[in-house]
């Protein structure tokens, strides 16, 4: 009986480890993997696939952004806004990243227990969530400012932790 229980626990542990690793990306940003039916959003959109696109993302963030009362983000600069990548930027900012405190806290908690290094798209989305949270912190007052600031700090610590892990010594498998 004892061996059967031990074998069952070991099997469950291995299954849980395989499932959690396989689906961990979907848990951080579930909206990226479940586009709305009424949306033309691509499945799992990504902004940065080259150095030029990283620089373009930087320009988007430096440009004046507009956040409407319904939390839709847009780029005020018409020239930048007309670029094809600006559409992907709006999609990720409006349909993928969390914009409410409970959702941002859930993301922070998931990031703190995330095994390994973040995938490129998850890092990008977390950085955009951090930028949005910084913007909301700057606009808030009183107790709300403290709540947004705490979320900002949690996201910053998660990104810093990921960068420290990714820049650490590599172990070669030979």
UniProtKB/TrEMBL annotation:
InterPro entries: FAM180. It holds the Pfam family FAM180. Residues 1-17 form the signal peptide. It comes from the Eukaryota. Keywords: Signal. PANTHER family: PROTEIN FAM180A (PTHR34034:SF2), PROTEIN FAM180A-RELATED (PTHR34034). This is Family with sequence similarity 180 member A. It comes from Panthera leo (Lion). The lineage of its organism: Eukaryota, Metazoa, Chordata, Craniata, Vertebrata.
């Amino acid at each position: 009986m004892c061996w059967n229980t031990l074998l069952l626990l070991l099997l469950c542990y291995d299954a849980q480890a395989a499932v959690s690793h396989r689906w961990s990306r979907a848990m951080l940003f579930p909206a990226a993997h479940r586009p709305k039916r009424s949306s033309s959003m691509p499945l799992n959109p990504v902004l940065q696939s080259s150095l030029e696109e990283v620089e373009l993302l930087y320009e988007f963030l430096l440009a004046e952004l507009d956040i409407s009362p319904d939390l839709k983000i847009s780029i005020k600069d018409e020239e930048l806004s007309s670029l094809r990548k600006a559409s992907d930027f709006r999609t990720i900012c409006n349909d993928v990243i969390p914009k409410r405190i409970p959702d941002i806290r859930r993301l922070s908690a998931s990031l703190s227990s995330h095994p390994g290094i973040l995938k490129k798209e998850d890092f990008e989305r977390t950085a955009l969530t951090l930028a949005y949270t910084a913007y909301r912190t700057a606009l808030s007052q009183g107790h709300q400012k403290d709540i947004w600031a705490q979320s900002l700090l949690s996201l910053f610590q998660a990104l810093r932790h990921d960068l420290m892990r990714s820049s650490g010594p590599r172990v070669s498998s030979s």
